[in-house]
Design a protein that fits this description.
Layout lengths: L4 H9 L13 E4 L2 E6 L2 E6 L10 E9 L2 E7 L2 E7 L6 E3 L2 E3 L2 E7 L5 E3 L6 E7 L5 E8 L2 E8 L5 E3 L10 E2 L4 E2 L4 E5 L4 E6 L4 E6 L6 E6 L2 E6 L3 E6 L5 E4 L2 E6 L6 E8 L2 E7 L5 E8 L1 E7 L5 E7 L7 E6 L5 E5 L10 E2 L5 E10 L2 E12 L1
Length: 372
Amino acid sequence: MQHKRWKQIILTAVATTLLGSTAACGGERTDDRQVIDSNGKQITVMEGKAPAGLDVIVESIQELRGLQGMDWVNGETILAVRPNLSRQAQVIEGKERYPINLLTRSLKDGTEDVLLPADEDQYAGMLSPDKKVLFYKRLEESVGYGYMLDMDTREAVPVLDRQTPDELIRDYEGEWIDSEHVVFPTMSGAIYAVDTKGSGELLAETDDLALYNVHMLGDRLYYIGAGDKLYLKEGDQPARVLLESVNWVIPSPDQQSLALVRRTREGEMTLYLADLDGKERLTLSKGMQIFGAAWSRDGTRLAYNIMSADKGASGLFVADAVTGKVTQVAVDIESLANPLQWSPSGEQLMAATSISTADGNERVTYIITLRQ
């Protein structure tokens, strides 16, 4: 089913990444650059001014082991999840498993603050634009019930009055419309807009059980349904099919453009920018899979990950949304646990992934500082 696509990408693409901790890796310094060895591969970290003609370069990489970053609280603190070892563990197939809890993590001194210690899994945290409220899920496998957490009082309220299977939400569904409202679909095909107190409005009842990737721009409601069809519902008008063969749609911060990932032929996805009616303006990249796309806060750049049969064309890329110029900023990030996240300043990217270890897969988050 289409709503499982993100999970399938993650589960089938988990591999060892190139990115390594600059503190833990050996390196060779020459003039204004340092070549860092990591897992038998190399990445160049630049110092000084950016070379002429190069729009984006990697200045440094901070590696955070054992946790999965999800959002930025501010320029020095991130929102993340990790197993809470102070809670009750479950024994699954002979191994202890601790509940996954949301926390904040300081990038300066490494201090962590668990927001709401609990024995159930918390996931898919999304902070409101003003950073006062957190929308998250109490998760079971890949679905859960939505909650709003006041970041000051640490009080949580459900986003819907009922909690039946029809009100379950897929893990990464949901988007803040403004600092007061979140829009999201449920497993039953309903689309809601809910405020920070849990008071909601039913926007549409689609009966489409494959519904995902919902966005609301003014009175325009976009969503992808069964058959990879992108629908547009304007005001009280019936929804209409805008485009077909669509995998993802990501509106720009100014709500004037759409970044679209479409299947253009067997084994090929294309990322392009379009107007609000889906008319193509600028093609950016092609690959076997394109995922994790995120706009910079000012809407000038788009970061995303590509999986390609050609290793040299795989990895993390940043595109200029005006000129269409694409720069590869890191290679061999073959999986992402959730979409990329730009820091408030636009100088850093957060990429959460998994790496293979002797004990299984380990959550790892990279804070990639860019120099332009």
